Amino acid sequence: MSQPAEVDGDDLRYADPDNPYLTEPDTEFAPVEELDADDAAAEVDLLRAALREHDHRYYARNDPLIADRTYDALFTRLVELEDAFDLDTADSPTRRVGGGTLDELGEVKHAAPMLSIDQSGDAEDVREFDERVRRTLGEDAEVTYSCEPKFDGLSVEVVYEDGRYVQAATRGDGRVGDDVTEQVRAIRSVPERLAGDPPETLAVRGEVFIPRDAFQEHNRERVEAGKEPFANPRNAAAGTLRQLDIDAVAERPLDCFFYDVLGWESDGDAEPDSPTRPDTNLGELDALRSFGLHVNDRAELAADIEAAIDYRDRLAAEREGLNYEIDGVVIKVNDRAACEELGTKSRSYRWAFAYKFPARHEVTTVEDIVVQVGRTGRLTPVALLDPVDVGGVTVSRATLHNPDEIASLGVAVGDEVRVKRAGDVIPQVAEVVESRSDAPYEFPDECPACGTAVERDGPLAFCPNGLACPAQAERAVVHYASRGGLDIEGLGEESVEQLREAGLVETLPDLYRLPDRREELAELDGWGETSADNLIREVEASTEPELAAFLAALGIHEVGAATARSLARHFGTFEAVRTASEAELQAVDDIGETVARTVRDFFETEQNARVIDDLLRFVDPQSDDTETGDALAGLTFVFTGSLSTARSEAQDLVEAHGANATSSVSGNTDYLVVGESPGTSKREDAEANDVDELDEEGFADFLAEHGIEWPPEEG
After folding, report:
1. Would you say residue 8 has pLDDT above 60?
2. CA distance readout (Å), 283 to 60, 93, 276, 287, 334
3. pTM
4. Known catalytic residues?
5. Which of 72, 98, 546, 715 is 20 to 30 A (C-alpha) from 482?
6. Cβ atoms of 652 and 640 closer than 8 Å
7. CB-based contact 347:116 (threshold 8 Å)
8. Average pLDDT of the chain, as a whole number
9. CB-based burial of residue 342 (10 Å sphere; 0-12 exposed, 13-18 middle, 19+ buried)?
């Protein structure tokens, strides 16, 4: 067992040094049923004081006294006692979780205007700021500056009355902001009760942020879950703080630095030794720190503006080593009386200036490499980056494509890399600028979602667990319900994730079990009986899908809408497609050896077979018995670009009259139909194979010559 931490009673903010729950506490608690009300109340007081101290030591001072698991045990004990003896209070540490859901964000008027700060990245502008200050205060005035990091987060006002947390609001327009009292309450570094002897009312300004290491870990979880990562910690913090689901806020790793006093009111009947507001900005920071608020430790006093500029340059050099994002420094006139004399402009303070850092461009650090599991089981490595500006867009991740690409680049966690945006869209790691890693990155041997041994196909890696893999299953459900599948309204990514987390939908067949779990569905946050009934109706309406739509909905790799139609027309029934050999599959137009093998592998995978057998208990794919004409018999069409009507309708139409609609151009293609914003590869292939091109008007004329109308009449 580790030795108890040294505790100096004068160093504690919230608990007596003799509190048994401070260092190496005994977590073998007496059974709750053996306690009387007085014993429970006394234990609750000790637990609350200890937990407040542990929060302060962990978040504000980065000097924890106990292990995380011990903290969790103390927290759980407090919850049990509060529930058993009805001892819950508004400022209990347990109020940080289980906050429920808000209907909307209200509005709050600030104690004092939360103005912005003039800023520049040019040192000469900073010197001009100093000259303006000295002109106003007088050339003989002794001006010193307090210098602090400029945090890149979300500004908030937090109000305490009699030392107790009562309200929080976003900056908003500077005078009125959104009420985020419950959201900020969930941030563990924001104390529910102030320490020491604070004023009767204290309104403080702070910056909510997500630490860089926590941001990368949160993005890792999002990428592995198939979600888009946040572009930068500021976006993540801002999006979290405006969540109406307080439980979701509590789960995210928010933190907060406090750096300014907006209001300080002491009781008129206060004792003579009651705290008065400090007369310098640095003094205010010390006071806030003494109250137990989380104050950054990098603030310094600068004797003149040149010293402030030096401070900025030093902090810029240390920027990458900080665990929070900063985009410059804030330089303030330190003397508060001088600040009052300088006053404000309509939107900014005359006594403060932000000296910005230049934006990061293209070169950044690989903070982590995670593996994302795709819908078809393909494993794609993704580099999580220290956010960097690439072509005016903030980039926090870049694809590494496959294991061979990682080996070719020689990239590993910690390396400095150059990032580019392929086609101005997808960020990629272009090269390693400086190798800083201790060891090469090793691609995992097991799927990160289900632990199945990874299989390789050339440069690619796959999880062979199919629809039994949780990551593939969730994406399969989303695809199954999408417009490219059975078009089940109400089943987007967020709702599918919610259903999975609630244990209602693990695999595709579970969709059809929802009618039996209607009450559970209706009780989910944001649902209710109407939404539950609507979804159940949509699901029940999908039990007899067209065969082509069902095949496309299964999400078989390489089987899109066009290939699914070809399979449906050729084989007629799902069972015939499912049992077809590779040779029989290759006999279908537009299906070659690779696609045939992929289809065969999908149906032969044991896990997929089990899921499909279960699915067929609820779903009856309708045989394709479409009567086709022969007006276009023997012709093959390929389509590219957007048409006035869905491209799939054009494909269905030509196939209904005896033609083939394939996805790629070859020597067997007769016509390439070119719509708006076409791709280049198909047109290049058409030119190489001497294939005739038709624009949509030419396509309509061609069909009219064969007695076919385009666009088809509705209905």
Report:
1. yes
2. 18, 29, 11, 6, 9
3. 0.58
4. 150
5. 715
6. no
7. yes
8. 86
9. middle
